[in-house]
Every structure is written in structure tokens, then in C-alpha cells.
Amino acid sequence: MRAAEELLEKQVVPVSEQIGAGFRRWRRSDLWVVLGFLALAVFVLIRLWIDPNGRILDRNDDDHGIFLFMLAHGERVVFDGASPFFESHLNAPVGVNMMANTGVLALSLPLAPVTHFLGGGVSVALLLTLGLAGTATAWYWLFAGHLVRSRVAAAIGALWCGFAPTMISHASGHVNFVNQYLVPIILWQVLRLREPGRAVRGGIVLGLLIVVQIFINEETLLFLALTLAVFVLAYAAMRPREVREVAKRFTAGLGVAAGVALVLAGYPLWYQFFAPGNYHGQPFAPSDFVTDLWSIAAFPRQSIAGTEAMDRLSVSATEDNTFFGPFGLIMIVVSTVMLWRSAAARSAAIAGLVLLLASMGPRLQAGGVRTGIRLPFGLVSHIPVIDLVSVTRFAMVPATIAGILLALAADRIRESSPARRRRFWIGMALALVPLFPKPVPVVQGDPMPAFLTAGLWKQYVPEGRTLVTVPLPDVTVGRTGQRWATLQNLDFAVPRGYFMGPANPPADDTGSWKAPDRFTSQLLIRVQLTGMRPYLTTVERERVRADLAYWRAAVVVLVPQAPNAVALRATLVDVLGEPESVGGVEIWALRDPSGG
After folding, report:
1. Helix or strand (DSSP H, E) at 87
2. If you write DSSP's letter for every residue of 221-286 in order, what string do you get?
3. Which candidate, 170, 89, 99, 87, places its Cα nearest to that of 132?
4. Phi, psi angles (nearest 5°) of residue 178
5. pLDDT of 319-360, one tens digit each?
6. What is the CA radius of gyration of the chain?
7. How far apart are CA 221 and CA 224, in angstroms?
8. Who wins on pLDDT, 25 or 380?
9. In whole angstroms, what separates CA 462 from the centre of its chain?
10. What is d(CA 154, CA 445) in angstroms, rounded to the nearest whole number?
11. pTM for this model (two decimals)
12. What is the pLDDT of residues 299-317, one digit of tens each?
């Protein structure tokens, strides 16, 4: 029995195998597993693949739009020589600090040719698909090559880590969170720092991986760092002598990794926190978006067993970070109990529990009701960097750790009696089958007018001027204008937009999802939402013209499918006169930046 426990310890904390050796042990059957992951990812995104440039992810059309922007920016960096850390063609004339946003440069730059020739919508669909399949494949490599002996156990763990409810939820708009294939590789490299002689070589490799992850998603890197910190502390408490023996070379390797990451990513990180366009904090309090206690055992809405009734337990459709289902939760607990004699498994479970508790915020919420029960997160919620995180996302960590525990338990069950194995696999089937994902829903986007697709806009927008769509590009209310601009790869500059930046600099540098309000932006939003045409005074008309001058507007384009387009048109006519019809839209050509 003791020999089996020692074997499990070695499985949970592998330190002696090379990445090449892991791949050399792959079999032909492993290729079929990976192709299965890819097929499942295509199935989840199939509705978007039917028309990737014409359709929009229905669960989170705003974030679909912002990642179209990120990919258009990457295309401009490669094909136009634009700055990788700053974008001038959105939120003109101020621009956007791309490092202060989720710029995904490690994804947008390699896919720039796809974005350029096939469109940003294709790149979004490709990244979401490869993100799901790639994450599952990376975990399968770690499981099959280093953690478990059974290919079935490896496939179960990888399937959970790549297609868990949290991953399917984020696939409705969060390109950055879906692409997590570096996480198991970084984890493996960190654990290998225990090996003698690995401090320099392993530290350099780890540092390079950290840099790449910074340019995919910093939040994921933060979650991984916090998880490993809790894991190491828990493991040190249980195995102090073992930890003391490896502490020196382990910390030396981390120091090398930190040095490499700082040298390569120091300037981009400085740009993120100190260059123009930086911000502090979020436009919401950490306590606003938390994990509901009852969501842990609920079915996710995007599974075959889920319904929209689960909405009351969720922050949003793209933040279903728990939702393990009742049988899934039972199997996670059963797996943890099976592995409890392993200090490494216990430490992993503790790390998952700590991060799950953090995701619940400063006060417990259950069944959609905020209780008065205080939780530990209230003590750390205002720490810099922590205050930039949407709290419920900490629950992505226990979701991944659950996959690790399920894989290890599925491998361990082979040593049990036939009756116990039968009960285990029945439980596993009851846990996994109801969580099988449904294709993510989409809606048809407003069609692109010939004014843009045929390049007619070039006759009206000279260099240094902007194209202003009405509704103005903005979070939630002006998504069509930003989508049109990004699908044109930001060949023309547009004012405002959906991005992260300071709310009202320099007076207020709190994070905001939009540009500071101006008279015209507030006026047009009011018209769009109410359908009521305002009666403008001479002074108000001059304020509209002043805003157009500030935006250096060359042409104003009315989105014909916009809500209350009639009232918006009448407002523009009141200020700018009658429009002309060009390329399927009505436009107002402005002779000079003053709006005349």
C-alpha cells in the first residue's frame, strides 16, 4: 500500500521527465483523442463557423466586438507598422493603451494574415476553436505523459480541463480565457524546478513561457501564480523536510524566471501601468460579481442538462465559472477522498478550495441572495492587481483542479475491486454526460454596407480625419459601428468605442469601459434609447459641431438598422442638414474638422 502511495506522489508532482520524452510516448490512439477534442470544439462553435464575419456571439456580443478590435489592431501592427502597445484608430483622437487592455498580442500578431485576408470574424472563430481543443490537448499531454498511466484517465481529465462549463461559458466571447494551453506547460516547468541543475535552464524556459502568457492573458497568469503559492504553502506544511531539501534550487529557478520575464516584458508592463491610457481599479466593486454558493452544484445553461433558469445563479452567460452539476460535484468530492492520503493531492484540493472561497467575494451569496456572512476576501479585495480582477473568475481555478483530481482518481480506481470500479464509472458517467456542451448561440450582425466594403469611404475620409458612425461606437449601445470598423481592420479611424481606459482623465483615472462622455455622445445615446427627437437650441447645435471637430470627423454615417434610426436621422438633419445616400447608407460629408 505504501508503494502505491509513493507512486501516486510521483504522479502528482512529476519532476524527472523531458517534454520530448512525453511526446515520444504518444501512440496513434492519442492522435484520435486530439482529433476528438478538435471535433468537439468545432461542434461548440459550429454556429459561428457558418458565417464568422456576419454572425455575432449572442451571449456576449460586446466582448465579441472587443476581440475583433484586438485582432484588427494586430493586423495593423503587422501590415501597417502600427505600435503594438497603442492603437490610434479607435477612440480617436486620444487612442487606446493596448497593454492596459487584453491585447492578446501573442494571438493577434500570428493570426494577422488570417485577419487581413479572411476577416477578423474568422480569426475569432479560429482562436475560440483552437483554444478549446488546444487547452484540452495540452492537459492531455501533461496527464498522459507525466501524471497518469491510463489513457482513459488522461482523456477524462483533459476533457474536463478543456471543455468544463467555465471554458464553454467563456467561449461565448472571451478569446483570452479560452486559450489556456500554456497553463499545464507552465505548471510542469514550475514543478521541474525541484530537479538538480534545473535552476538556470528551467528558469529561462519558464520565464519565456510567462512572457508569452502575459501577451495572451495576464489574469490567467495571476490565477496560476496564486494557485501555486497556496499549493506550495500547503505542501510545505505537510512535507516540510522535503520542501526544505529543494527550496534553494526551486527559488533560484523562480528568480531566473522572474529576471527573464522582467527583462523581456518590463517595458510593456511599464506601458500598461504608467503610459497614457492607464487606469486603476474597475468600473465596478469587487463585491458586485461573485460566485453564488448554489451554482457549484447547478447545471450550466450551456449544457444539455442546463436551462436559462440558472441565470439567477450566474453573473453572466460568459462567467459560469463553477456549475459542476450535482453528480459532478459528488465525483469531485469522491475523487478528493480517494486521493486524500497523497500530500500533493491534498494540497491541490486546498488550493482549489481557497480560490473557490475567494471567488465568493467579501460576503456569501446563495440562491441569488446576498447574505450577511462575511468571507475572507474582504480583507484583500483592495490590494493592487487583485482589485483589477472580476472576483468570480477565481472559480476557474477549482474548475481546473477538479479535472486534475478526476484524472488522478480515474487512474487510481484501476487498483480497486470490480464492484468499486463499476460504481466509480457509473458515477463518472452521471457526472460528465449531463455537462456535454451545446453549440454556443449566435445572432446575425448588421450587414456591412457597400460604402465600406467597396471602399467608397476613401473618397470622404482623408488621412488624419475620422469616420463617425451613428450610433457612436460605445459599450452596449454602439456595437455595430465598432464592429464595422474592426472588420475593415481599422483602415479608418473612429471616435469612442468599447475598450478599457480611464473614466475621466486626469481628474478620475478609475477604469471605464468607454471614453469619457461628451455632449454629443450623451445626446445620441438618449435619442437611441428613447426614440424621441430633441429640439436643439443654437448653442446645443454648436456643441455638437464642436464635438465633431474634436473627433476630427470627415463623414458621419447613419447605421440604417440602428434602434430608433428615424429619430437619430432627424437629430443629425437638425444639426448637419440633409444627407446624401452613398453605398447603401446615408452620410453627411463634412468639409473641415469644425463640422462644417
Report:
1. strand 86-87
2. HHHHHHHHHHHHHHHHHH-HHHHHHHHHHHHHHHHHHHHHHHHHHHHHHHHHHHSTT--BS-SS-G
3. 170
4. -75, -30
5. 999 999 999 999 999 999 999 999 999 999 999 999 999 999
6. 26
7. 5
8. 380
9. 36
10. 40
11. 0.93
12. 999 999 998 877 789 889 9
